[in-house]
Protein backbone atom coordinates (compact mmCIF):
# COMPACT_ATOMS: atom_id res chain seq x y z
CA UNK A 1 0.00 0.00 0.00
CA UNK A 2 1.39 3.42 -0.95
CA UNK A 3 1.90 6.24 1.54
CA UNK A 4 -0.99 8.27 0.03
CA UNK A 5 -3.31 5.28 0.25
CA UNK A 6 -2.29 4.66 3.87
CA UNK A 7 -2.90 8.29 4.77
CA UNK A 8 -6.29 8.20 3.08
CA UNK A 9 -7.14 4.99 4.93
CA UNK A 10 -6.15 6.53 8.27
CA UNK A 11 -8.35 9.58 7.61
CA UNK A 12 -11.29 7.36 6.67
CA UNK A 13 -10.90 5.38 9.88
CA UNK A 14 -10.80 8.61 11.91
CA UNK A 15 -13.98 9.91 10.24
CA UNK A 16 -15.72 6.57 10.80
CA UNK A 17 -14.72 6.57 14.49
CA UNK A 18 -16.01 10.15 14.84
CA UNK A 19 -19.34 9.25 13.23
CA UNK A 20 -19.75 6.18 15.43
CA UNK A 21 -18.98 8.25 18.50
CA UNK A 22 -21.43 11.05 17.61
CA UNK A 23 -24.22 8.58 16.78
CA UNK A 24 -25.07 8.63 20.49
CA UNK A 25 -27.03 11.62 21.86
CA UNK A 26 -25.09 11.47 25.09
CA UNK A 27 -21.78 11.61 23.22
CA UNK A 28 -23.06 14.55 21.13
CA UNK A 29 -23.80 16.52 24.30
CA UNK A 30 -20.36 15.70 25.73
CA UNK A 31 -18.70 16.72 22.44
CA UNK A 32 -20.60 20.06 22.31
CA UNK A 33 -19.74 20.83 25.94
CA UNK A 34 -16.04 20.10 25.34
CA UNK A 35 -16.07 22.41 22.27
CA UNK A 36 -17.73 25.21 24.28
CA UNK A 37 -15.19 24.94 27.11
CA UNK A 38 -12.34 24.83 24.61
CA UNK A 39 -13.66 27.95 22.85
CA UNK A 40 -13.95 29.87 26.14
CA UNK A 41 -10.40 28.90 27.08
CA UNK A 42 -9.02 30.08 23.72
CA UNK A 43 -10.93 33.35 23.99
CA UNK A 44 -9.65 33.94 27.50
CA UNK A 45 -6.11 33.19 26.37
CA UNK A 46 -6.27 35.69 23.48
CA UNK A 47 -7.72 38.37 25.76
CA UNK A 48 -4.85 37.87 28.20
CA UNK A 49 -2.32 38.27 25.39
CA UNK A 50 -3.91 41.55 24.24
CA UNK A 51 -3.80 42.98 27.75
CA UNK A 52 -0.19 41.91 28.15
CA UNK A 53 0.89 43.82 24.95
CA UNK A 54 2.51 47.16 26.01
CA UNK A 55 2.42 50.14 23.62
CA UNK A 56 5.73 52.08 23.22
CA UNK A 57 6.05 55.07 25.58
CA UNK A 58 5.39 58.47 23.85
CA UNK A 59 8.40 60.75 23.38
CA UNK A 60 8.63 63.73 25.69
CA UNK A 61 7.49 66.89 23.92
CA UNK A 62 10.22 69.25 22.95
CA UNK A 63 10.31 72.56 24.87
CA UNK A 64 8.20 75.16 23.22
CA UNK A 65 10.03 78.36 22.56
CA UNK A 66 8.31 81.58 23.20
CA UNK A 67 6.84 83.00 20.14
CA UNK A 68 8.72 85.87 18.66
CA UNK A 69 6.25 88.30 17.35
CA UNK A 70 8.87 89.69 14.99
CA UNK A 71 9.71 86.31 13.42
CA UNK A 72 7.93 85.50 10.20
CA UNK A 73 5.38 82.67 10.37
CA UNK A 74 6.40 79.57 8.42
CA UNK A 75 4.52 79.00 5.22
CA UNK A 76 2.51 75.89 4.90
CA UNK A 77 3.63 73.33 2.32
CA UNK A 78 0.60 72.49 0.23
CA UNK A 79 2.14 69.19 -0.93
CA UNK A 80 2.72 67.85 2.60
CA UNK A 81 0.00 65.57 4.00
CA UNK A 82 -2.21 66.96 6.69
CA UNK A 83 -1.55 65.44 10.12
CA UNK A 84 -4.36 63.39 11.63
CA UNK A 85 -6.12 64.65 14.66
CA UNK A 86 -5.22 61.71 16.82
CA UNK A 87 -2.22 59.41 16.41
CA UNK A 88 -3.16 55.78 16.10
CA UNK A 89 -1.59 53.44 18.64
CA UNK A 90 0.91 51.00 17.18
CA UNK A 91 -0.72 47.57 16.59
CA UNK A 92 0.86 44.66 18.54
CA UNK A 93 2.95 42.25 16.55
CA UNK A 94 1.18 38.86 15.91
CA UNK A 95 2.49 35.92 17.96
CA UNK A 96 5.11 33.82 16.19
CA UNK A 97 4.10 30.12 15.81
CA UNK A 98 6.39 27.36 14.69
CA UNK A 99 5.03 25.29 11.84
CA UNK A 100 5.17 21.57 12.49
CA UNK A 101 6.14 19.71 9.33
CA UNK A 102 3.79 16.94 8.20
CA UNK A 103 5.14 13.43 8.71
CA UNK A 104 6.56 11.76 5.65
CA UNK A 105 4.47 8.60 5.19
CA UNK A 106 6.12 7.41 2.01
CA UNK A 107 8.41 4.93 3.72
CA UNK A 108 6.20 4.22 6.75
CA UNK A 109 4.74 0.70 7.06
CA UNK A 110 2.31 -0.44 9.76
CA UNK A 111 3.86 -2.64 12.48
CA UNK A 112 3.37 -6.39 11.94
CA UNK A 113 2.53 -8.37 15.12
CA UNK A 114 5.00 -11.16 15.84
CA UNK A 115 3.87 -14.62 14.76
CA UNK A 116 2.94 -17.02 17.56
CA UNK A 117 5.17 -20.02 17.78
CA UNK A 118 3.71 -23.53 18.03
CA UNK A 119 4.80 -23.73 21.65
CA UNK A 120 2.99 -20.48 22.45
CA UNK A 121 -0.19 -21.72 20.74
CA UNK A 122 -0.07 -24.94 22.77
CA UNK A 123 0.27 -23.00 26.00
CA UNK A 124 -2.62 -20.70 25.13
CA UNK A 125 -4.99 -23.66 24.85
CA UNK A 126 -4.92 -24.46 28.56
CA UNK A 127 -3.52 -21.32 30.18
CA UNK A 128 -5.99 -19.62 32.50
CA UNK A 129 -8.34 -22.61 32.73
CA UNK A 130 -9.63 -23.58 36.16
CA UNK A 131 -8.03 -26.83 37.40
CA UNK A 132 -10.18 -29.98 37.47
CA UNK A 133 -9.29 -31.85 40.65
CA UNK A 134 -10.50 -35.11 42.17
CA UNK A 135 -12.92 -33.07 44.31
CA UNK A 136 -14.45 -31.55 41.17
CA UNK A 137 -14.72 -34.98 39.56
CA UNK A 138 -16.52 -36.44 42.59
CA UNK A 139 -19.00 -33.56 42.53
CA UNK A 140 -19.47 -34.02 38.77
CA UNK A 141 -20.16 -37.77 39.19
CA UNK A 142 -22.69 -37.09 41.97
CA UNK A 143 -24.43 -34.27 40.08
CA UNK A 144 -24.66 -36.20 36.80
CA UNK A 145 -25.47 -39.46 38.61
CA UNK A 146 -22.64 -41.25 36.82
CA UNK A 147 -20.90 -44.48 37.67
CA UNK A 148 -18.27 -44.30 40.40
CA UNK A 149 -15.88 -46.06 38.04
CA UNK A 150 -15.06 -42.56 36.74
CA UNK A 151 -13.74 -41.63 40.19
CA UNK A 152 -11.69 -44.83 40.23
CA UNK A 153 -10.21 -43.97 36.81
CA UNK A 154 -9.45 -40.42 37.97
CA UNK A 155 -7.57 -41.68 41.02
CA UNK A 156 -5.58 -44.15 38.88
CA UNK A 157 -4.62 -41.47 36.36
CA UNK A 158 -3.62 -38.89 38.98
CA UNK A 159 -1.47 -41.51 40.71
CA UNK A 160 0.07 -42.64 37.40
CA UNK A 161 1.15 -39.12 36.37
CA UNK A 162 1.73 -37.59 39.80
CA UNK A 163 -0.69 -34.77 38.97
CA UNK A 164 -3.71 -33.22 40.69
CA UNK A 165 -5.18 -31.31 37.72
CA UNK A 166 -6.85 -33.16 34.85
CA UNK A 167 -6.36 -30.15 32.53
CA UNK A 168 -2.59 -30.69 32.69
CA UNK A 169 -2.85 -34.47 32.42
CA UNK A 170 -4.91 -34.43 29.22
CA UNK A 171 -2.33 -32.32 27.37
CA UNK A 172 0.71 -34.40 28.27
CA UNK A 173 2.59 -35.84 25.32
CA UNK A 174 3.05 -39.12 27.23
CA UNK A 175 -0.67 -39.47 28.08
CA UNK A 176 -1.49 -42.41 25.79
CA UNK A 177 1.90 -44.20 26.04
CA UNK A 178 1.72 -44.27 29.85
CA UNK A 179 -1.94 -45.34 30.07
CA UNK A 180 -1.47 -48.15 27.54
CA UNK A 181 1.99 -49.23 28.69
CA UNK A 182 2.29 -53.03 28.61
CA UNK A 183 4.22 -52.89 31.89
CA UNK A 184 1.74 -50.59 33.63
CA UNK A 185 1.15 -51.96 37.10
CA UNK A 186 -1.14 -51.37 40.02
CA UNK A 187 -0.34 -52.68 43.49
CA UNK A 188 2.19 -55.10 42.04
CA UNK A 189 -0.21 -56.49 39.41
CA UNK A 190 -0.54 -55.71 35.71
CA UNK A 191 -3.44 -53.42 34.85
CA UNK A 192 -6.01 -55.21 32.71
CA UNK A 193 -6.85 -54.33 29.11
CA UNK A 194 -10.34 -53.20 30.10
CA UNK A 195 -8.91 -50.93 32.80
CA UNK A 196 -6.77 -49.16 30.21
CA UNK A 197 -9.79 -48.71 27.95
CA UNK A 198 -11.80 -47.36 30.90
CA UNK A 199 -9.07 -44.79 31.65
CA UNK A 200 -8.96 -43.66 28.00
CA UNK A 201 -12.76 -43.33 27.94
CA UNK A 202 -12.69 -41.33 31.15
CA UNK A 203 -10.16 -38.89 29.67
CA UNK A 204 -12.45 -38.09 26.73
CA UNK A 205 -15.57 -37.96 28.91
CA UNK A 206 -14.11 -35.47 31.40
CA UNK A 207 -12.65 -33.35 28.58
CA UNK A 208 -16.03 -33.06 26.86
CA UNK A 209 -17.91 -32.39 30.11
CA UNK A 210 -15.53 -29.64 31.30
CA UNK A 211 -14.74 -28.34 27.78
CA UNK A 212 -11.05 -29.02 28.33
CA UNK A 213 -9.16 -28.44 25.05
CA UNK A 214 -6.99 -31.38 24.01
CA UNK A 215 -4.35 -30.96 21.32
CA UNK A 216 -5.55 -32.64 18.13
CA UNK A 217 -2.70 -35.13 17.84
CA UNK A 218 -3.25 -36.23 21.47
CA UNK A 219 -7.01 -36.68 20.96
CA UNK A 220 -6.32 -38.65 17.77
CA UNK A 221 -3.89 -40.85 19.70
CA UNK A 222 -6.55 -41.55 22.36
CA UNK A 223 -9.14 -42.53 19.75
CA UNK A 224 -6.66 -44.77 17.94
CA UNK A 225 -5.58 -46.45 21.20
CA UNK A 226 -9.23 -47.14 22.10
CA UNK A 227 -9.71 -49.06 18.83
CA UNK A 228 -6.48 -51.03 19.24
CA UNK A 229 -7.13 -51.98 22.85
CA UNK A 230 -10.78 -52.75 22.09
CA UNK A 231 -9.58 -55.38 19.63
CA UNK A 232 -7.12 -56.71 22.22
CA UNK A 233 -9.94 -56.92 24.75
CA UNK A 234 -12.09 -58.94 22.36
CA UNK A 235 -9.20 -61.28 21.55
CA UNK A 236 -8.42 -61.73 25.23
CA UNK A 237 -12.06 -62.49 26.03
CA UNK A 238 -12.05 -65.28 23.44
CA UNK A 239 -8.87 -66.89 24.73
CA UNK A 240 -9.28 -69.80 27.18
CA UNK A 241 -8.20 -69.02 30.73
CA UNK A 242 -7.12 -72.11 32.66
CA UNK A 243 -7.10 -70.10 35.91
CA UNK A 244 -10.91 -69.97 36.05
CA UNK A 245 -11.97 -72.73 38.43
CA UNK A 246 -15.47 -74.02 39.27
CA UNK A 247 -17.43 -72.33 42.06
CA UNK A 248 -17.53 -75.49 44.18
CA UNK A 249 -13.75 -75.77 44.11
CA UNK A 250 -13.34 -72.08 44.90
CA UNK A 251 -15.71 -72.20 47.90
CA UNK A 252 -13.86 -75.26 49.26
CA UNK A 253 -10.57 -73.34 49.05
CA UNK A 254 -12.06 -70.33 50.88
CA UNK A 255 -13.50 -72.51 53.65
CA UNK A 256 -10.27 -74.47 54.17
CA UNK A 257 -8.15 -71.30 54.20
CA UNK A 258 -10.35 -68.90 56.21
CA UNK A 259 -13.09 -71.05 57.89
CA UNK A 260 -16.81 -71.02 57.16
CA UNK A 261 -17.57 -68.15 59.56
CA UNK A 262 -15.02 -65.79 58.01
CA UNK A 263 -15.70 -62.58 56.14
CA UNK A 264 -14.00 -64.15 53.10
CA UNK A 265 -16.49 -67.04 53.00
CA UNK A 266 -19.44 -64.63 53.40
CA UNK A 267 -18.21 -62.56 50.45
CA UNK A 268 -17.71 -65.63 48.24
CA UNK A 269 -21.14 -67.07 49.10
CA UNK A 270 -22.84 -63.71 48.50
CA UNK A 271 -21.28 -63.36 45.03
CA UNK A 272 -22.09 -66.98 44.19
CA UNK A 273 -25.76 -66.20 44.71
CA UNK A 274 -25.78 -62.59 43.43
CA UNK A 275 -23.30 -62.25 40.51
CA UNK A 276 -22.96 -58.46 40.63
CA UNK A 277 -19.86 -56.41 39.92
CA UNK A 278 -17.93 -54.59 42.66
CA UNK A 279 -21.17 -53.04 43.92
CA UNK A 280 -21.57 -54.74 47.30
CA UNK A 281 -21.23 -51.50 49.25
CA UNK A 282 -24.54 -52.31 50.93
CA UNK A 283 -26.18 -50.03 53.48
CA UNK A 284 -28.19 -51.96 56.09
CA UNK A 285 -31.88 -50.98 56.47
CA UNK A 286 -34.83 -52.75 58.10
CA UNK A 287 -37.50 -52.04 55.46
CA UNK A 288 -38.00 -51.10 51.83
CA UNK A 289 -39.33 -47.69 52.89
CA UNK A 290 -35.87 -46.84 54.22
CA UNK A 291 -34.24 -47.74 50.89
CA UNK A 292 -35.28 -44.39 49.37
CA UNK A 293 -32.05 -43.10 47.77
CA UNK A 294 -31.68 -44.12 44.13
CA UNK A 295 -27.89 -43.62 44.28
CA UNK A 296 -27.31 -45.98 47.22
CA UNK A 297 -27.14 -49.79 47.30
CA UNK A 298 -29.04 -51.51 50.11
CA UNK A 299 -29.34 -54.75 52.03
CA UNK A 300 -32.80 -55.05 53.59
CA UNK A 301 -32.84 -57.26 56.68
CA UNK A 302 -36.26 -57.18 58.33
CA UNK A 303 -36.58 -57.76 62.05
CA UNK A 304 -38.98 -60.59 61.28
CA UNK A 305 -36.90 -63.75 61.72
CA UNK A 306 -38.71 -65.62 58.96
CA UNK A 307 -38.34 -62.90 56.30
CA UNK A 308 -35.75 -63.31 53.57
CA UNK A 309 -33.20 -60.61 52.93
CA UNK A 310 -33.32 -58.38 49.86
CA UNK A 311 -30.49 -56.69 47.94
CA UNK A 312 -31.12 -53.53 45.91
CA UNK A 313 -28.28 -52.28 43.73
CA UNK A 314 -28.98 -48.87 42.22
CA UNK A 315 -25.44 -47.86 41.33
CA UNK A 316 -23.42 -50.03 38.96
CA UNK A 317 -21.31 -49.77 35.81
CA UNK A 318 -24.18 -49.93 33.31
CA UNK A 319 -26.90 -48.21 35.37
CA UNK A 320 -27.60 -45.86 32.44
CA UNK A 321 -28.60 -48.86 30.31
CA UNK A 322 -30.30 -51.20 32.80
CA UNK A 323 -32.80 -50.98 35.62
CA UNK A 324 -31.76 -51.37 39.24
CA UNK A 325 -31.02 -54.89 40.48
CA UNK A 326 -33.54 -56.10 43.05
CA UNK A 327 -32.90 -59.62 44.34
CA UNK A 328 -34.54 -61.58 47.18
CA UNK A 329 -31.79 -63.78 48.60
CA UNK A 330 -32.14 -67.28 49.97
CA UNK A 331 -33.00 -67.96 53.61
CA UNK A 332 -29.61 -69.64 54.18
CA UNK A 333 -27.71 -66.58 52.87
CA UNK A 334 -29.96 -64.27 54.93
CA UNK A 335 -29.08 -66.17 58.11
CA UNK A 336 -25.38 -66.15 57.21
CA UNK A 337 -25.39 -62.35 56.75
CA UNK A 338 -27.25 -61.81 60.05
CA UNK A 339 -24.78 -64.04 61.86
CA UNK A 340 -21.85 -62.18 60.32
CA UNK A 341 -23.32 -58.80 61.33
CA UNK A 342 -23.72 -59.99 64.94
CA UNK A 343 -19.94 -60.48 65.12
CA UNK A 344 -19.23 -56.90 64.03
CA UNK A 345 -18.91 -53.93 66.34
CA UNK A 346 -22.01 -51.78 66.84
CA UNK A 347 -20.35 -48.72 65.27
CA UNK A 348 -19.49 -50.76 62.17
CA UNK A 349 -22.95 -52.00 61.23
CA UNK A 350 -24.09 -49.23 58.91
CA UNK A 351 -22.76 -51.23 55.94
CA UNK A 352 -22.61 -54.99 55.44
CA UNK A 353 -18.84 -54.91 54.92
CA UNK A 354 -17.56 -51.32 54.59
CA UNK A 355 -18.34 -48.22 52.54
CA UNK A 356 -15.37 -49.12 50.25
CA UNK A 357 -15.28 -51.45 47.26
CA UNK A 358 -14.08 -55.05 47.66
CA UNK A 359 -11.72 -55.55 44.70
CA UNK A 360 -8.50 -55.11 46.71
CA UNK A 361 -9.81 -57.29 49.52
CA UNK A 362 -10.79 -60.15 47.18
CA UNK A 363 -7.48 -59.86 45.30
CA UNK A 364 -5.56 -60.24 48.57
CA UNK A 365 -7.85 -63.11 49.55
CA UNK A 366 -7.04 -64.99 46.33
CA UNK A 367 -3.31 -64.52 46.88
CA UNK A 368 -3.57 -66.09 50.33
CA UNK A 369 -5.27 -69.10 48.75
CA UNK A 370 -2.47 -69.40 46.18
CA UNK A 371 -4.66 -68.39 43.24
CA UNK A 372 -2.77 -66.21 40.77
CA UNK A 373 -3.92 -64.67 37.51
CA UNK A 374 -7.62 -65.08 38.32
CA UNK A 375 -8.39 -61.44 39.01
CA UNK A 376 -10.82 -60.39 41.72
CA UNK A 377 -14.56 -59.60 41.48
CA UNK A 378 -14.58 -60.14 37.72
CA UNK A 379 -13.41 -63.71 38.31
CA UNK A 380 -16.65 -64.40 40.21
CA UNK A 381 -18.64 -63.47 37.12
CA UNK A 382 -16.52 -65.74 34.91
CA UNK A 383 -17.11 -68.65 37.29
CA UNK A 384 -20.86 -67.96 37.33
CA UNK A 385 -21.09 -68.07 33.52
CA UNK A 386 -18.99 -71.23 33.33
CA UNK A 387 -21.24 -72.92 35.88
CA UNK A 388 -24.41 -71.64 34.19
CA UNK A 389 -23.50 -72.92 30.69
CA UNK A 390 -22.68 -76.44 31.92
CA UNK A 391 -26.40 -77.26 31.75
CA UNK A 392 -26.98 -75.91 28.20
CA UNK A 393 -29.38 -73.14 29.27
CA UNK A 394 -32.27 -71.97 27.12
CA UNK A 395 -32.40 -68.56 25.49
CA UNK A 396 -34.96 -67.47 28.10
CA UNK A 397 -32.65 -68.50 30.95
CA UNK A 398 -29.69 -66.74 29.35
CA UNK A 399 -31.73 -63.53 28.99
CA UNK A 400 -32.78 -63.77 32.65
CA UNK A 401 -29.18 -64.18 33.84
CA UNK A 402 -28.04 -61.31 31.61
CA UNK A 403 -30.69 -59.16 33.30
CA UNK A 404 -29.34 -60.09 36.74
CA UNK A 405 -25.70 -59.52 35.73
CA UNK A 406 -26.61 -56.24 33.98
CA UNK A 407 -24.94 -56.97 30.68
CA UNK A 408 -25.98 -58.11 27.20
CA UNK A 409 -26.26 -61.79 26.20
CA UNK A 410 -23.40 -61.15 23.72
CA UNK A 411 -21.17 -60.01 26.59
CA UNK A 412 -22.25 -63.08 28.52
CA UNK A 413 -20.78 -65.37 25.87
CA UNK A 414 -17.43 -63.56 26.08
CA UNK A 415 -17.12 -64.72 29.70
CA UNK A 416 -16.77 -68.32 28.52
CA UNK A 417 -12.99 -68.03 28.60
CA UNK A 418 -12.31 -71.58 29.75
CA UNK A 419 -13.95 -73.22 26.72
CA UNK A 420 -11.96 -74.18 23.64
Please characterize this protein's 3D structure.
The chain is mainly alpha-helical. Among the domains are: 123-238; 247-414, hpI Integrase, Chain A. The protein is 49% helix and 5% strand. The chain has helices at 3-22, 25-52, 118-126, 134-144, 149-161, 166-169, 175-179, 193-209, 216-238, 247-258, 263-273, 331-342, 359-368, 377-389, 395-405, 409-414, and strands at residues 185-186, 189-190, 282-285, 297-300, 310-313, 325-328. It has a 4-stranded mixed beta sheet with strand order 3-4-5-6, covered by helices on one side. A hairpin with a 2-residue loop joins strand 1 (185-186) and strand 2 (189-190). Helix 4 packs antiparallel against helix 5 and helix 5 (149-161) crosses helix 8.
Concise synopsis of the structure shown:
Helix content is 49%, strand content 5%.
Topology (SSEs and partners):
Layout: H1 3-22, H2 25-52, H3 118-126, H4 134-144, H5 149-161, H6 166-169, H7 175-179, E1 185-186, E2 189-190, H8 193-209, H9 216-238, H10 247-258, H11 263-273, E3 282-285, E4 297-300, E5 310-313, E6 325-328, H12 331-342, H13 359-368, H14 377-389, H15 395-405, H16 409-414
Parallel strand pairs: 3-4
Antiparallel strand pairs: 1-2, 4-5, 5-6
Poorly predicted segments:
84-89, 116-127
Q: Mind describing the biggest β-sheet? A: 4 strands, mixed
Write out the strand line-up for the largest beta sheet, numbering strands in chain order.
3-4-5-6
In whole angstroms, the N-to-C terminal distance is 79 Å
- Give the helix level as a range of percent: 40-55%
Given this structure, which CATH class of the domain at 247-414 is correct? Mainly Alpha
How much is the radius of gyration in Å? Answer: 47 Å
